[in-house]
Amino acid sequence: MNMKKINLKEIEVIEYHYLKKYFHFLKFAEDELLLGFKTKEKIKDDWIGLYKSGISDFAVGAERIVYSLLNGKGIGLPNSAPVGADLFFEVENAFIHLDLKTVGATLHPRYHNHPDGTWSNNIGDYTNNIFVGTNQNSYKSEIKKSDGSSFNPPRYYEPSLPAFYNKNKANQKICISYFITILYDKDTLDILVLSILCMPNGELERHYKSRVLQAGKNIDKTRFRFTEVPTFELLNDTPNRIMVVYFDKSMDESYRSKLEFFEKLYDNQ
């Protein structure tokens, strides 16, 4: 890719190409993933008390299953650089960062005075945006308020990853960021939704501007506002930046009503 004449459409071609490859890999391994997530049931009596008390976390087990499949049968050559997402691969024309995000929902939230501690419903952290770390993306931009106006003083987000590795060198390659997102039920530990999302490369800030980012809880933190940039806008037919690998059609209606965005994607893929 010629750095002197960056073609933003070409960036999206590469992003979409590998999004499809990872989606089809995950879809092919769907049975293995769902079976892997259920292996915890065999020894549930030995860990459920620790999990409920907050000592353990569902995310740890989910990551173990997903990463074992991707590392064993995935796409590209793993890279050992200390800065990057949990999975970092090199392919012919790109460096790919891939991270897993898990969010728990519950129909039975517990509050501060509950004897077993708090047990919150975090489905809102899944439906419109997700937290992203500085080591997981290259999107440098101003973070604006939901109405499009600037904070006072303005807030600027500085990621740790470059838009291109080896910039202006013979072996220059684009940096791409993907997130596998899992929504699960905290009470049953059933998977509700499993998706893969592509966050725009930093060079695409010239097109998407501040729409990609949403303010995090702290000034230096940000969230990927994927519902504001749900498609590859520069490509013909504007294919989706979010692909849904699994959607539990039998989930409770109170969940389903909040996940309409994902169900429509799932049904129309």
Structure in words:
The chain has a single domain (3-268), classed as Restriction endonuclease BglI (ECO RV Endonuclease, Chain A, 3-Layer(aba) Sandwich). β8 and β9 (191-199) form a beta hairpin. The protein has helices at residues 8-28, 30-38, 44-52, 58-73, 124-127, 205-208, 253-256, 260-268, and strands at 77-78, 87-91, 94-105, 130-132, 141-144, 150-157, 164-165, 173-185, 191-199, 213-215, 222-224, 242-247. The protein is globular, with a radius of gyration of 19 Å. 28% of the residues lie in helices and 26% in strands. Strands 1, 2, 3, 7, 8, 9 and 12 form a seven-stranded mixed sheet that branches. A three-stranded antiparallel sheet has the order 4-11-10. The protein has 269 residues and is an alpha+beta fold. It starts with 7 loop residues before the first helix and ends with a helix.
Offer a concise description of the structure.
The chain is built from eight helices and twelve strands. With 269 residues, it is of the alpha+beta class.
Number of helices: 8
> In the CATH scheme, what's the topology name?
ECO RV Endonuclease, Chain A
Q: CATH H level: which superfamily?
A: Restriction endonuclease BglI
Strand tally is 12
Mean pLDDT equals 88
* N-to-C CA distance: 30 Å
Biggest pleated-sheet summary: 7 strands, mixed
What secondary-structure arrangement, pairings included, does this model have?
Layout: H1 8-28, H2 30-38, H3 44-52, H4 58-73, E1 77-78, E2 87-91, E3 94-105, H5 124-127, E4 130-132, E5 141-144, E6 150-157, E7 164-165, E8 173-185, E9 191-199, H6 205-208, E10 213-215, E11 222-224, E12 242-247, H7 253-256, H8 260-268
Parallel strand pairs: 3-8
Antiparallel strand pairs: 1-2, 2-3, 4-11, 5-6, 7-8, 8-9, 9-12, 10-11
